Amino acid sequence: MKRAEFPALQDGHAYLDGAAGTQVPASVIDAIAGTYRRGIGNVGGAFPASHRADEIVANARQAVADLVGGDPGGVILGANMTTLTYRLANTLATGWQPGDEVVVTRLDHDANVRPWVQAAEKAGATVKWADVDRATGDLPTGQFDALLSERTRLVAVTAASNVLGTRPDVASITAAAHNAGALTYVDGVHATPHGPTDRTALGADFYATSAYKWCGPHVGAVVADPALLDTLRPDKLASSSDDVPNRFETGTLPFADLAGVTAAVEHLAGLTDATGTRRERLLASMTAAEDHEQRLFARLLDGLREIPGVTLHGAPQRRTAVAYFTIDGQTPRQTAETLAAAKVNVWNGHNYAWELTGALGIRDAGSAVRASIVHYNDGTDVDRLLDCLQRT
């Protein structure tokens, strides 16, 4: 899918490392560089360069809202998902009391675990854990009935595991949380690049995503209902804006990078020939991207299963295109280095899935190798990985 648009893909490497960060198309590079060439000032000024910054921020909020199905007035922008999650955890925790409860899962990236655990500890709240089925890598939905109570204040859950690809039944989990009177925080960082996203359908009071996982720059965003954000009072400078969502954004935003965010969303919206609003084009494009990735993923899984000594970790019922595996007699790092020598880029280690790799019993041994597929990958990338492993 439009590989020629990505300058980095011309270097002869097979980039199967997208789960850690994607390459960017020329349109994103041009948008960022062009912003600096035109000249920008800080927001809120009386002069044209400042007006350009105002427009860039508004466009980025609208672009993220179109991508995930949200309201631009509820799009909080920041350095990354982890920083924003800590900010919101600390803000929400000001209303928690001893005896209140927070539910986190062992499937999640640590960025959707540790901020909530630490905030709960400071507030004297109790942390409850949803466990993973170690054989399949699924997150059983039924366990949440026992975990939730009238004292539950928040449920944090991922829309997709960044190492196993597991897509839990988020809508059912959030519905149960809402029935208990709790808020929901959904980590969509890994899920967003791999299919259409609808924040409302997921039942996410807060939906987190990172542009660098969907061909944009290193910018994070959390999307919520503006009315909900209006009820929250984060720590802020006395002199900074109290408007929503500005009150959640500390310091000056990276305006040029935000221009890149909008360009990245436009790139995704243009993956097919679909017409209509940008939201409609995104739904069509991301559906096509998911189909493309799943076809390549089936090829990758079939090939890995035929290689002696390969162990695939997790076999969830619904998953994104990410394989997490080990090879007998090799550490994950050795496997990754062998592939790197053949110009095949993969990751090794826990990849911040700290609780999950611990639950699987592989963390202390270096965890596993992760090969991930995004829309710009093709069959040659998969075949190069498989050919290299077959020769080792």
From TrEMBL:
SUPFAM superfamilies: PLP-dependent transferases
Record-linked InterPro entries: Aminotrans_V_dom, Cys_dSase-rel, PyrdxlP-dep_Trfase, PyrdxlP-dep_Trfase_major, PyrdxlP-dep_Trfase_small
Keyword Chloroplast on entry: no
Gene3D superfamilies associated with the record: Aspartate Aminotransferase, domain 1, Type I PLP-dependent aspartate aminotransferase-like (Major domain)
Every Aminotransferase class V domain range: 15-385
Coiled-coil features, chain-numbered ranges: none
Signal peptide start and end residues: none
Protein name as it appears in the record: Cysteine desulfurase family protein (TIGR01976 family)
Species in which this protein is naturally found: Amycolatopsis magusensis
